[in-house]
Write a sequence for this structure.
């Protein structure tokens, strides 16, 4: 199907290979021309052959220059793509320039027109021409570079005063969008350092930044991470002190009085609520821009996490309104953006783009929240906690079910090296908000069901005809781990509800409505949990909750909303939980004891069926079963027994954990009933002596 006339599809990868091949051929032609010119008298060749080769070299040189420019345009067509670029669609006016220098010269020419003195403002078409020219060449990196290189930061600040202060709102919005898109592109092409930022003001100073002028632009393009980080340090006051954030300037040396009044908005410079160019509006736009950058969000949030959480605590209902901070990064207008940044820093996109940085952020978030103890943050921040826990649910519950003690120094260890109690603190704070409770409940059930499913797949067919009788089921540990997951979440849910109940008994009259609604929300989640079915849990919780829904329920509640029914549901949930503290160390000790006596009491092999056909034999020997493959992950000591976990490196810990959960080790462990305080859940019928078998009610086992 033919493409539109103004659309050309380019594959940057293929175009890059074509340019490389042409460059190789060009060099070959040049070398052959020199060689033939040196021997033209001694060989019988046409006299114009060297000249023809030189002409081919010149042609290739010209076309390579043109192709490189086309490649730059293609790469600029999709600035949000990371990694290998897919085919890009170039839209807009045809390319007017054959070389990058021609495009840069055109950009400089446009800037020169804007820089010409016009005291009487007779050149009224300048801004319109600017918008039209930049709009047509917004995806041309060479044109954009030439324009902003010549314009400079001080003149750009003056231009923004004119554009954002235009009398026609439509013209202002259009100019704002075009400058935002092109300045974002420029920030990725040039390093806009402290020197550039220091001159971004209309008073031609070299140490002041009119940050408020950038606020409306940040949502129109993907700005360079380095620039956003530098502005973020300025916002939080953690820079080197060489720059001063002046917000928006007016008066002598600044914009005209009419322009300043026009862009400040009806609320005036001090009205943060109605001023889209206030420092608070800039701060909110900046934090959202950082949140939208998955490579920057986790590193920036890790540096400023204490400030982000401190500001959220300052906005909680427990802080009297008169004591809440009213400006800067602590301002209440920034709370939504702060929570979006926290959620993004620990979100799936950040984890994919910067896995190490995302792990570090989440680990610090767990540490900070657990170290602070129960504290009040805004409902939106609690919802952000829930989004982070959802994205890292496997790591959360890996800390709960791992048979090894945590390793705080290893962020890639199970649970990011954090203890279950630390994760529980973050989980309780998230549940306290109510909005994330259904999602987190579904996560717990899904993880528990996944453990059960994997255990079945890994031990399928172990108890088939002719199978040996084992002291325990090879799935017993997995069953216990699944129970630990549900117990962990249920305990956090009930403890959160009990905390709300305690607060409910002591709070003042104005807080009674909120606490009662929170109790009912948590009780609804408890009723929706079916630990035997992920589908039923997801169905029960499918309605979901948002911060807005929770707040609406609080507003519509009555002062006499009963909580007795909810308390009864939570009491039943608490009664059904079976927490087994310290099971990990007892389980490791039981395995070590069993392995120590393996010569006198040999382990019975476990044979399981593989999904693709065939069988696998587990003997219990870490080397024979493939858990120890060399010195790097050999967790055994000189006597062949497991060494102290504290002495193991990361590879040894990983192999050791896998061996502890292997079918032969679990199935031959006759101490499991005592270690896990529960009978074997899936044993071969008849494995126990008659006196130990269960009997129908009212009958005594024979013998």
């Amino acid at each position: 199907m033919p493409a539109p006339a103004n659309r050309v599809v380019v594959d940057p990868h293929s175009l890059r290979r074509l340019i490389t091949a042409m460059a190789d051929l060009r060099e070959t032609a040049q070398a052959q021309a020199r060689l033939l010119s040196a021997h033209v008298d001694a060989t019988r060749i046409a006299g114009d052959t060297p000249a023809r080769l030189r002409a081919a070299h010149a042609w290739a040189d010209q076309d390579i220059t043109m192709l490189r420019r086309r490649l730059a345009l293609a790469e600029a067509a999709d600035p949000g793509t990371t990694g290998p670029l897919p085919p890009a669609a170039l839209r807009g006016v045809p390319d007017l320039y054959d070389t990058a220098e021609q495009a840069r010269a055109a950009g400089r020419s446009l800037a020169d027109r804007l820089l010409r003195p016009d005291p009487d403002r007779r050149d009224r078409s300048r801004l319109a021409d600017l918008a039209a020219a930049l709009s047509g060449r917004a995806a041309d990196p060479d044109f954009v570079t030439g324009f902003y290189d010549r314009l400079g930061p001080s003149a750009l600040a003056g231009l923004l005063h004119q554009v954002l202060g235009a009398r026609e709102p439509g013209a202002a919005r259009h100019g704002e969008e075009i400058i935002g898109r092109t300045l974002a592109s420029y920030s990725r092409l040039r390093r806009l350092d402290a020197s550039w930022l220091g001159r971004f003001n209309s008073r031609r100073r070299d140490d002041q930044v009119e940050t408020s002028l950038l606020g409306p632009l940040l949502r129109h393009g993907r700005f360079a991470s380095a620039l956003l980080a530098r502005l973020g340090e300025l916002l939080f006051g953690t820079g080197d002190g060489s720059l001063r954030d002046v917000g928006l300037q007016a008066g002598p040396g600044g914009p005209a009085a009419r322009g300043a009044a026009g862009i400040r908005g009806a609320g005036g410079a001090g009205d943060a609520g109605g001023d889209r160019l206030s420092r608070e509006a800039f701060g909110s736009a900046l934090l959202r821009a950082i949140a939208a950058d998955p490579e920057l969000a986790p590193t920036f949030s890790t540096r400023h996490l204490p400030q982000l959480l401190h500001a959220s605590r300052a906005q909680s209902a427990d802080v009297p309104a008169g004591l809440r901070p009213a400006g800067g990064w602590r301002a209440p207008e920034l709370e939504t953006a702060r929570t979006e940044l926290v959620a993004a820093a620990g979100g799936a996109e950040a984890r994919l783009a910067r896995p190490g940085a995302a792990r570090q952020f989440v680990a610090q978030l767990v540490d900070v929240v657990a170290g602070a103890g129960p504290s009040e943050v805004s409902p939106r921040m609690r919802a952000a906690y829930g989004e982070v826990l959802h994205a890292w649910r496997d790591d959360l519950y890996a800390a709960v079910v791992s048979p090894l003690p945590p390793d705080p120094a290893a962020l890639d260890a199970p649970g990011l090296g954090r203890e279950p109690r630390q994760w529980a603190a973050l989980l309780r704070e998230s549940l306290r908000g109510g909005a994330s409770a259904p999602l987190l409940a579904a996560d717990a059930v899904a993880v528990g069901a996944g453990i059960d499913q994997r255990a079945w797949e890994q031990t399928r067919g172990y108890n088939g005809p002719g199978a040996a009788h084992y002291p325990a089921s090879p799935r017993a540990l997995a069953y216990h781990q699944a129970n630990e997951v549900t117990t962990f979440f249920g305990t956090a849910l009930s403890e959160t509800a009990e905390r709300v109940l305690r607060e409910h008994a002591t709070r003042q009259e104005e807080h009674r409505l909120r606490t009662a609604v929170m109790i009912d929300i948590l009780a609804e989640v408890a009723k929706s949990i079916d630990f035997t079915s992920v589908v039923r849990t997801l169905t029960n919780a499918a309605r979901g909750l948002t911060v807005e829904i929770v707040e609406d329920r609080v507003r519509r509640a009555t002062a006499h909303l009963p909580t007795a029914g909810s308390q009864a549901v939570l009491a039943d949930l608490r009664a059904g939980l079976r927490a087994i503290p310290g099971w990990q160390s007892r389980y490791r000790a039981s395995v070590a004891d069993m392995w120590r006596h393996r010569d006198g009491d040999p382990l019975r092999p476990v044979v399981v069926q593989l999904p693709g056909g065939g069988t696998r034999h587990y003997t219990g020997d870490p080397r024979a079963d493939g858990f120890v493959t060399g010195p790097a992950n050999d967790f055994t000591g000189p006597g062949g027994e497991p060494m102290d976990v504290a002495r193991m490196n990361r590879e040894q810990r990983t192999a050791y954990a896998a061996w502890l959960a292997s079918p032969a080790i679990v199935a031959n462990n006759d101490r499991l009933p005592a270690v896990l305080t529960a009978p074997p859940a899936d044993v071969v019928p008849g494995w126990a002596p008659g006196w130990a078998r269960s009997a129908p009610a009212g009958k005594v086992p024979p013998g």
